[in-house]
Design a protein that fits this description.
Layout: E1 7-12, E2 24-30, E3 33-40, H1 48-52, H2 57-64, H3 72-87, H4 93-121, H5 125-146, E4 155-156, E5 159-160, H6 166-192, H7 194-200, H8 208-213, H9 219-222, H10 230-233, H11 254-277, E6 293-304, E7 307-318, E8 323-327, H12 329-337, H13 349-355, H14 360-363, E9 368-370, E10 375-377, H15 381-386
Antiparallel strand pairs: 1-2, 2-3, 4-5, 6-7, 7-8, 9-10
Helix pairs in contact: 2-3, 3-4, 4-5, 4-11, 4-13, 5-6, 6-11
Length: 389
């Protein structure tokens, strides 16, 4: 008698058990094995790209910084660089170094929070609380430099909005020493703890060939042994002057992706120290920053904590952009990497998904234009997925 196969559909989300943002994973299981998965997004759409066409260039830097609460500084940096490319605006050397400083502080706290969330996902509550406690030091440093813990609004077109003093630099170095020692302890935990190794090793394995073929970016790509980092491949700000190593792990599993983030925190700490020790003198803004932009196009790409972030602006001249397009790393990592869940056990679904470090808020921006008529339209998500309209 042949075995009877019963496929059951299980909705994971939209209130997700691992990531506290609204997205749904529809998974089909045969017993404990996932045989199919579908990502259902669209629960958090805010119309950011539509709003961008109705705001001035300077207002857009503020608004785009709010696409992601965790990665707000890198969004502001990428947006400002895009407009600077469009307007041929030169950023002073001191401002370029300060942009590196705040973006690397942001990378540290971003990596620490996803490491803590992964600990929570596997039931390691003590590790979660310890890492969140120590992350508060980084948030304090971010507030010290920018004036705000979360929404920094630090980067502006042409430079940065606040300078730092010698006293602030001394405080940064003092707290970085503490954070570095704590991260050494956490690296030992992530490398040796049997619970972590049992849950993460060989879970959600992504080969280098698959990573490239599916266009994943950031720690997902480097966790599969592919040495690719926008800061090194296409330097921006002062990354062509600040030395650092591109971290890779060849294992390609969930553990490797988390270990890339662990090691990148050490690189970011060293980069912040280098910036403080080699900070150029001079202004943090050019003498004149234009309110209007000339006709043309501008593009910028950066290495956000989650991977490659791209901004593309089209201008017809004037105070506002004609079009602003944002391509975030989570957009490609979530939708292109979801196939890793197929073949996994049900209990490993939150672990694999968390290892992507997904940001749902970053994904929810779509504007559809009929290229034949130039008319904007509202398209149901199902039709958009099928490219039928």
């Amino acid at each position: 008698m042949s075995k009877q196969i019963r496929i059951i559909e299980i909705p994971v989300g939209p209130q997700h058990p691992a990531i506290h943002e609204p997205i749904q994973l529809r998974i089909w299981v045969d017993g404990e094995e996932v045989v199919n998965v579908k990502v259902v997004a669209g629960f958090n759409h805010r119309g950011v790209e539509w709003l961008a066409e109705r705001k001035t260039w300077h207002q857009n830097v503020f608004m785009c910084s709010r696409i992601c609460g965790i990665c707000n500084t890198i969004h502001g940096t990428t947006c400002a660089q895009c407009f600077e490319d469009l307007g041929n605006i030169e950023v002073p050397p001191r401002a370029r170094y300060l942009r590196v400083l705040v973006n690397e502080l942001e990378r540290i706290h971003s990596h620490m929070i996803i490491l803590a969330i992964m600990a929570e996902a596997i039931g390691f509550e003590t590790l979660f609380m310890l890492m969140m406690r120590d992350r508060e030091r980084v948030m304090y440093l971010k507030e010290l430099v920018t004036g705000n813990r979360v929404l920094a609004d630090y980067v502006t077109i042409g430079g940065v909005r606040r300078d730092i003093t010698t006293e602030i630099c001394d405080k940064i170095k003092k707290h970085l020493n503490y954070i570095e020692e704590r991260m050494k302890y956490y690296k030992k935990v992530w490398s040796e703890d049997p619970i972590i190794l049992k849950r993460l090793v060989d879970t959600g394995r992504l080969t280098a060939w698959q990573a490239i073929a599916h266009c994943v970016v950031g720690p997902m790509l480097r966790g599969s042994g592919v040495k690719s980092d926008i800061r090194k491949d296409y330097p921006y700000a002062a990354y062509d002057e600040v030395p650092f190593n591109v971290i890779t792990y060849k294992e390609g599993d969930s553990w490797a992706r988390m270990m890339v983030r662990v090691d990148e925190t050490f690189e970011s700490i060293n980069m912040v120290r280098y910036v403080i020790e080699h900070l150029p003198s001079g202004p943090i803004l050019p003498k004149v920053v234009p309110k209007k932009m000339p006709p043309g196009e501008g593009i910028s790409k950066t290495e956000a904590p989650r991977g490659e972030l791209i901004y593309h602006a089209i201008s017809k001249g004037g105070l506002k952009p004609y079009r602003l397009k944002v391509r975030t790393p989570s957009f490609t990592n979530i939708h292109n990497g979801a196939f890793l869940i197929k073949g996994a056990h049900v209990a490993d679904v939150p672990v694999i998904f968390t290892s992507f470090d997904p940001c749902i808020a970053c994904c929810e921006r779509v504007k559809v234009i009929d290229v034949r008529s130039g008319r904007s339209m509202v398209v149901p998500l199902k039709e958009l997925n099928r490219l039928r309209w």
